[in-house]
Design a protein that fits this description.
The chain is an alpha/beta fold and about 290 residues long. It has helices at about 50-55, 85-95, 110-120, 140-145, 160-170, 180-190, 220-225, 245-255, 275-285; strands at about 5-15, 20-25, 35, 60-65, 100-105, 125-130, 190, 195-200, 230-235, 260-265.
């Protein structure tokens, strides 16, 4: 978490009473806020460096924990780990924060939510940064993600967790510095008296039950058509197996105000820790209200 910004952890109740958490990075707000939506098994803490760079430009930054992740409560019914329920949760957080229009930064699943919100609430999304996600998601990447979500071998320390992450993901993330692996591990796991635990409900793996080698997956081009009416910056990890170059090119063809940035030496999804990517995000947002 940022040590230089005034940051508040805020909690609200979802429509069904489950407690939701979000981070509110205070700023002297002279522009529309930035709402940060994490990936499937990720948390609000992924965006602290983004907040460090964006808040000083006059934007309030909000970063959300979906239900079952981070400091939000786990749901006793895993069927509620769905895009529809999460969308209602996001709208509840925005209502609590008094946000009716904003910039959005969505990593992976957060980008799908950004597209869906553009369709569900016209005027809410004024510009979007999509972090390694598009309307078409590659099957090979989904199968890979299904192979690890909710699964954790016995680990005693965060150092062991860091070593495991580098072993498993290092091939696709050769550009990540050693200290960034340490940060990423702390954002993924938590040390407990019994060892290392995930920072999300392992039952979240049921969200991928439909992912099989023979399955056909939903595409989001209709929602993207609505999002394409606003400025878009698409980030793609150089080795991504979720966002293909072909899909990125099609996204550009369908959006008149489209920019793209490739994050070298990273796969799905870029960690949002490297200076060139952060600078690119700040430059894009500087052109928006």
């Amino acid at each position: 978490m940022s040590a230089s910004l005034q940051t508040e952890s805020r909690f609200i109740s979802a429509a069904d009473g489950l407690r939701l958490h979000y981070l509110d990075y205070a700023a002297t707000a002279i522009r529309l806020p930035l709402v940060c939506l994490p990936g499937l098994a990720r948390t609000a803490d992924d965006f602290w460096r983004v907040a460090d760079h964006v808040a000083p430009t006059g934007r309030r930054v909000l970063a959300l924990d979906y239900r079952g992740r981070g400091r939000s409560d786990w749901d006793r019914d895993w069927r509620n780990y769905s895009l529809d329920v999460e969308q209602d949760d996001i709208l509840a957080v925005l209502a609590d924060a008094g946000v009716s229009e904003a910039m959005f930064l969505g990593t992976s699943r957060g980008g799908l939510h950004t597209m869906r919100l553009a369709r569900a609430r016209p005027g809410l999304v004024r510009a979007a940064v999509l972090n390694d996600i598009g309307p078409r998601v590659e099957k090979s990447g989904l199968l890979r993600i299904k192979g690890y979500v909710g699964k954790l071998p016995p680990l005693r320390t965060l150092s062991e967790a860091t070593a495991l992450m580098r072993l498993v993901a290092g091939r696709d993330f050769p550009g990540v510095a050693p200290q960034e692996w340490d940060i990423f591990a702390r954002q993924t796991f938590v040390e407990t008296e019994g060892g290392v635990a995930l920072r999300y409900d392992p039952e979240l793996n049921h969200a991928l039950d439909s992912v099989t080698p023979d399955a056909e997956f939903e595409e989001f081009w209709d929602s993207y058509a609505l999002l394409a009416q606003v400025p878009i910056l698409a980030l793609r990890g150089e080795t991504s197996d979720i966002l293909s170059v072909e899909t990125l090119d099609e996204m550009a063809r369908r959006a008149p105000r489209f920019e793209a940035h490739t994050v070298p030496g990273q796969g799905h999804a870029p960690l949002l820790l490297d200076e060139p990517t952060l600078t690119r995000i700040v430059t894009f947002l500087a052109q928006q209200p």
